[in-house]
C-alpha cells in the first residue's frame, strides 16, 4: 500500500517535471533579469528610495533573494511594518519564491 502511494507520488512528480521541460518553466526564472525586474517593482513602490538592492542568492534559479531597501517611506514604522510593505510590493513574485531575506532602513 505504501509502496503504491510512493510510486504514484513519484510518477506525478515525474510528469510535472516533464511537463515543465516540455512547456517551459512555470515559475519565475532567476538571475540578473529577475533581479532587475524585482528592483523595478520596488522602485515603483518606493519612488523616493535612496538605495534598492536585489540579489539572487539561490545560485541563479530564482528561488531565494536578498533585498535591501533604504527609503524615507519607512520613517516611523516598525521593522515588521517596513518588511510588510516590501512583501506587499512583491506579492505576486513571492508566490514563486522559496525564501526572501529583507533588510530595510529609513533614508536620511
TrEMBL record:
This is BolA-like protein 3. One of its GO terms (cellular component) is mitochondrial matrix. Belongs to the BolA/IbaG family. It comes from Cloeon dipterum. Gene3D superfamilies: BolA-like (3.30.300.90). It comes from the Eukaryota.
Amino acid at each position: 500500500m505504501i509502496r503504491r502511494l510512493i510510486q504514484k507520488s513519484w510518477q506525478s512528480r515525474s510528469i510535472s517535471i516533464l511537463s515543465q521541460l516540455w512547456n517551459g518553466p512555470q515559475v519565475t526564472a532567476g538571475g540578473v533579469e529577475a533581479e532587475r525586474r524585482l528592483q523595478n517593482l520596488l522602485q515603483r513602490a518606493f519612488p523616493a528610495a535612496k538605495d534598492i538592492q536585489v540579489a539572487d542568492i539561490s545560485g541563479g534559479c530564482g528561488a531565494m533573494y536578498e533585498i535591501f531597501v533604504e527609503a524615507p517611506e519607512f520613517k516611523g514604522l516598525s521593522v515588521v511594518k517596513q518588511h510588510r510593505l516590501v512583501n506587499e510590493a512583491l506579492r505576486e513574485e513571492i508566490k514563486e519564491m522559496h525564501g526572501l531575506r529583507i533588510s530595510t532602513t529609513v533614508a536620511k
